Amino acid sequence: MSPVSRGFLGRRRPVADPSRLPPGQYLETGFPVLSAGPTPHTPLDEWNFLISGEVDEPVSWPWKDFLELPAESVTVDIHCVTKWSKFDTKWKGVSVDTLFERINSEAAYVTAWSDGGYTTNLPREHVSDGKAWVAYEYDGQPLHPEHGGPARLLVPHLYFWKSAKWVRGLTFTRQDEPGFWENYGYHNLGDPWLEQRYQGD
Questions:
Q1: Which regions of the chain are under pLDDT 50?
Q2: What is the DSSP string of 97-154?
Q3: Parallel, antiparallel, or unpaired for β 133-138 and 119-123?
Q4: Which pTM does this prediction carry?
Q5: How many other C-beta atoms are found inside a 10 Å radius of the C-beta of residue 20?
């Protein structure tokens, strides 16, 4: 089975508000599915979310406790490095700010890690101050495994590979440590408005 799943319609459509579409992107009405490997299926009674690394004390939440944390519903545009964008996507999850309330750390970076071995690196400032969530619902339904369920990182202001599927934790680091795609030449940050797709962009 191909690691890149179905979902591309490949047809450019008129954009009602072109100012919302980053350069080089086209508007997609579906929700394409791309993965670098097979979809993991971790039983919820074995799932937890862990914050660790350069912190005074690691903190983790099992699934039941995670769902009891204060949740937010957000509507955001998302932008994939493969050049599709999708407007007004609706998610529910826990703000990363809420998770960080339990953490004491001076580290400037985090690495998101996932079931299946995927990682991606992010400056702390890009997952703080209302910029990121750990989402477990999409469009009013539990997040489907092919889209990263039971939970995925949601960092909508960056290219979508930074919104790690099947996320299980954040590790604080003092240095920027490139993740899976970054080690294959993708940009360390991935700002769609600056077209930061690959190193050197």
A1: 1-11
A2: HHHHTT-----SEEEEEETTS-EEEEEGGGSSTTS-EEEEEETTEEPPGGGTTT-EEE
A3: unpaired
A4: 0.90
A5: 14
